Amino acid sequence: MAWPLRVFMVSAIGIGAVIAAGSVARFSYAPMPDEGDLLNPARYPLSTAYDILGRRVARDEAEQLEATPEGRGVLSAERGAVAIDEALVRRGREAFYRETFGNEVFLSDVMGMLEGGVTPYEVARAIALLGGRGTNNLQVRMARDVTVGDRVWKTGELVPTGLDVPRNSAFILGIRTFYDRGRLRMGITCALCHAAVDPASGKVVEGAPNTDLNAGLLMALASNATAYFMHGSADPSAHPGDAARQVITEGGAKAALPDRARFEAAAKVEVASWPAGSFDSSADRETNPTSIPSSFSAYAEPYSWSGRAGIGPFKGLSALNNNVHAANSDTTQQTQAARTLFGLDPQVYLGTVLQGAAAGPLRYDPASGKRPTEVLDAADPTPGTPGLNSYAVLPSFPATNYMTDNGLLASVPGEPANYANNAMSAFQNLLHAPAAAVEAGQVGRGRAVFERVGCAGCHSGPALSNNRVVPVEEIGTQPSRARSTVRMEARLVPPAIFATDTPFPLPPNPKLVPIPLEGTALKQVQLAWAHAGTAGGYKVQNLVGLAWSAPYLHDSGVAVGPDPAKHLGVPGTLDAGIAPDPANSLRALVDRGLRAKVVAANAASQKARTARVTGEGHAYWADSAAGVSAEEQADLIAYLLSINGLTEQVPVP
Question: What is the pTM of this model?
Answer without folding.
Answer: 0.95
